[in-house]
TrEMBL record:
The keyword Repressor does not apply. Keywords: Signal. It comes from the Bacteria. One of its GO terms (biological process) is carbohydrate metabolic process. Residues 1-32 form the signal peptide. This is Peptidoglycan/xylan/chitin deacetylase (PgdA/CDA1 family). Residues 41-161 form the NodB homology domain. The keyword Lipid biosynthesis does not apply. PANTHER family: CHITOOLIGOSACCHARIDE DEACETYLASE, PTHR34216. One of its GO terms (molecular function) is hydrolase activity, acting on carbon-nitrogen (but not peptide) bonds. It holds the Pfam family Polysacc_deac_1. InterPro entries: Glyco_hydro/deAcase_b/a-brl, NODB_dom, Polysacch_Deacetylase.
């Protein structure tokens, strides 16, 4: 075999180029740090939309469909937008969007500060645990009648977890894959509490802010959950249409590195990853 110095220049250059590409490839693969829980991508992003408003069907679903991304819509069973536009919700589910459970009546704890909007009929502090559980289950029946699915996630109305100090979701664990809360945070699969998944509530932030959150999730290889209400209007909590569009464009442009999926699919992956970790010696 000839020494490298005696090999033709073209061969030496080819060998050097191959070695360089191999090193770059290994370096890139190391930096990517893909995770099975994130569908073998760098991170996971979940887009959630609360309260079953007209804007979900008029603005958000078409926007997501236009870039072939899927989200989770947390429906209040008693919302007139559910009853009046049921076929449209069914079509959204058929296109891969999750219809999540946001309770039948959206009860919130009226005893807390700043809760003057809570009516006596929908005051969670006046509920029994059994009532909250039964209403959530009734809403599941309604959602199943719309989409035919049994696996879905729950979102706490107003982020309220307890009734008289008791966590009512404890009785609902068999009914759901997971539940989304309202506390902000980025988490690895091991850090996630499937009974209270963290999320970032969006209200008036810029598109740059939304994209920066995604970049943080990419860098830390974590789960990022967005909590939207109105998009382009239609709700007291709102994000500008342009900002929302900027986020979707970034997610679509980086879909090879970012897993964007409904909450139920991400939660199922996390659940499997956590179970696998506990089985290891």
């Amino acid at each position: 075999m000839q020494p490298a110095s005696k090999l033709p220049m073209a061969v030496r250059l080819s060998s050097a180029t191959t070695a360089l590409l191999l090193i770059v490839g290994i370096h890139s693969a190391t930096n990517a740090q893909t995770n099975p829980a994130w569908n073998n991508k760098q991170c996971a992003v979940v887009l959630t939309y609360d309260d079953a408003i007209d804007g979900d069907l008029d603005i958000v679903v078409p926007a997501l469909d236009s870039v072939k991304l899927r989200g989770t819509f947390y429906l209040i069973g008693s919302s007139p937008v559910v009853a009046k536009r049921l076929p449209e919700w069914r079509r959204a589910a058929q296109r891969g969007h999750e219809l999540g459970n946001h309770a039948l009546m959206h009860p919130c704890d009226g005893s807390l500060p700043g809760r003057s909007f809570v009516t006596p009929d929908n005051d969670l502090s006046k509920y029994t645990v059994n009532r909250a559980v039964q209403e959530a289950r009734v809403n599941n029946v309604l959602l199943n009648a719309i989409d035919g699915k049994t696996a879905r996630t729950f979102a706490y109305p107003c982020g309220d977890l307890t009734i008289g100090g008791v966590k009512f979701y404890d009785q609902l664990r068999p009914d759901f894959v997971a539940a989304r809360g309202v506390q902000a945070g980025l988490q690895t699969p091991a850090q996630i509490d499937l009974t209270n998944i963290e999320s970032y509530m969006i209200n008036g932030q810029s598109g740059d802010y939304l994209v920066d959150l995604v970049k943080q999730a990419q860098a830390s290889h974590t789960l990022l959950v967005f909590l939207f209400h109105g998009v382009g209007g239609g709700h007291g909590l709102n994000v500008d249409l342009k900002a929302h569009r900027q986020l979707l464009r970034y997610l679509k442009a980086h879909e090879k590195e970012i897993w964007v999926a409904p909450m139920v699919e991400v939660a199922e992956k996390v659940k499997a990853a956590q179970a696998s970790a506990t089985r290891k010696p």
